[in-house]
Amino acid sequence: MFKKVMILVVTAVMFAATGSTAADFYGTLAKIKETGTIVLGHRESSVPFAYIGPEGKPVGYSMDLCMKAVEAIETELGMDLEVKLVPVTPQTRIPLIANGNINIECGSTTNNLTRQEQVDYAYTTFITGTKILTKKGSGIKEIEDLAGKAIALAQGTTNERAIKENIEKLGVKDVKILSVKDHAEGFLALQTDRVDAYSTDHILLFGLIAKAKDPAAYEVVGRFLSFDPYALMLPRDDSAIRLVVNRTLAGLFRSGEIKDIYNKWFMSDIPGSQALMVPMGDTLEMNFAVQSFPK
Amino acid sequence: MNYNWNWSILTAEPYLGWLVSGLGWTLLVSALGWIIAFTLGSLIGVIRTLPSKPLRLLGTVYVELFRNVPLLVQMFIWFYVLPELVGEDLGRWMKRDMPFPEATSAILCLGTYTASRVAEQVRAGIESIPRGQVMAGYAMGLTTKQVYRYLLIPVGYRIIVPPMTSEFLTIFKNSSLALTIGVAEVLYQARQIENYTFQGFEAFTAATLIYLVVTMIVVFVMDRVEAKTRIPGYGVQGNT
């Protein structure tokens, strides 16, 4: 009898002891907890997702979403974190995530399957596609009109590949392509008449127009030449940090707070530029609805 | 570090073709830039040692201007700013109809920048010749032009072969900055390979090796040249 009681008591104590110990963090969360710092990569001229505002600090739609995720990570780890901001370009963003130099990339990065071999993504936060920016009166309305003209493309973007593939597929002849480093240079080339068009994701084109000295001189033309869903980039094979970020995003989608954040950056005046006035649209609304995972 | 190595992309088409074409552009831009740098630099270097004060001032202004502005800024100025300053028609031609606008800007930029450095080397070489030699030349009845032609330039250039080799290697490496204005040279192609395959480390290793091999070849050749052109008994210490 005594033996039976003792066995019961020991088992009970063992269960109590293993009950609710603090979860062991691994991967990126462990590293963040250890250093007390979270490193966010941001773009410098991707209006309105992540760009340097008039006060010299990075601001934007993706930045706001990232900061919400940082708050959630702070809660998860039970500590305050120092936020380090590192500028990235289309060239450097994937290597920096892959080797752990930045923990989350907050910009205008397209989620595609090839990139998923090197990095991971949170839930889609915006949907866009490749379009063409040109000066009014240039006579360019679709990609076929680029025959015999010059276009600037940012090296390393999905749009560069989309335009090149479409030019080959549709047999558009004699297109001169100027390779530039980022959107600011591409727009400069268009502004100074070095090229007739610049192409990137359509929403970024609206951002470039809004920041220009003479917005009325430019227009975005053509059909969508690619499907580009944007998402925050995360390190690969790290479900823990992805869960925290996704949980935050799903919460924003569920409560409808995402609409306020969206309107703040797309339907009203933003730091350093006029309002873009791009309404959410059915596809993006459906995107948020479908990703509103319950708790 | 979560990285999947894949060296086979370097030998696969089209990436190998891209690297070869990139190498071609690097060599072209560097070689043509060097031709400009050497001729213009020699001219400026000689001008800086002439007896005439206004000419010396001209040389100094050139060297200080081109030496002190960062090369990347100069690239931008040649490519983006210059066409805006030369007037409507010429500017438009430069931006649209001129063949290879990016390569031309890169060659002119590299050439003028390196010329300022070559000028300093040439000046150092000429000024290192003892004043006694120059005075002896004048005493023998040589004109200034003859002093330069028979005395200062032949001896001066042989002295500066090693730093001149360095300048040539530097222009070769500086040609990589041309990628910022769109020239498809080796480093640009390495980045392009990285974009398409995400195998960045392999691509940049390939670019590094290409640069190393070419510079080794140049050093090998210039070592022979230096040995041949060395003046026996002239230098105090040199014995390489």
- What would CATH call the class of the largest domain in chain A? Alpha Beta
The assigned structural class of chain A equals: alpha/beta
Q: N-to-C SSE series of chain B?
A: HHHHHHHHHH
Rg from Cα of chain B: 22 Å
- Percent of residues in helices of chain B: over 70%
Mean pLDDT of chain A: 90
User: What is the overall shape of chain A?
Assistant: elongated
Strand order of the largest sheet of chain A: 10-9-11-8-12
Give a verbal description of the structure:
- The complex is a heterodimer of chains A (295) and B (240).
- Chain A is α/β, with parallel strands linked by helices.
- Chain A folds into two domains: 27-128 and 229-290, Periplasmic binding protein-like II (D-Maltodextrin-Binding Protein, domain 2); 130-221, 3-Layer(aba) Sandwich (D-Maltodextrin-Binding Protein, domain 2).
- Helix content of chain A is 40%, strand content 22%.
- Chain A has ten helices and 13 strands.
- Chain A has a five-stranded mixed β-sheet. Chain A has a three-stranded parallel β-sheet with strand order 5-1-6. A three-stranded antiparallel β-sheet of chain A has the order 2-3-4.
- In chain A, strand 9 (150-154), helix 5 and strand 10 form a beta-alpha-beta unit.
- In chain A, helix 3 packs across helix 8.
- The radius of gyration of chain A is 23 Å and the shape is elongated.
- Residues 18-22 of chain A have low confidence and may be disordered.
- Chain B is mainly alpha-helical.
- Chain B has a domain at 24-184: Orthogonal Bundle (MetI-like fold), CATH 1.10.3720.
- Chain B contains ten helices and no strands.
- Chain B has helices at residues 15-47, 53-68, 71-85, 88-97, 101-127, 131-139, 144-159, 161-174, 186-197, 200-229.
- Chain B is flat, with a radius of gyration of 22 Å.
- Classes of the chains: A alpha/beta (295), B mainly alpha (240).
- Chains A and B meet through helix 4 and strand 10 of A and helix 3, helix 4 and helix 9 of B.
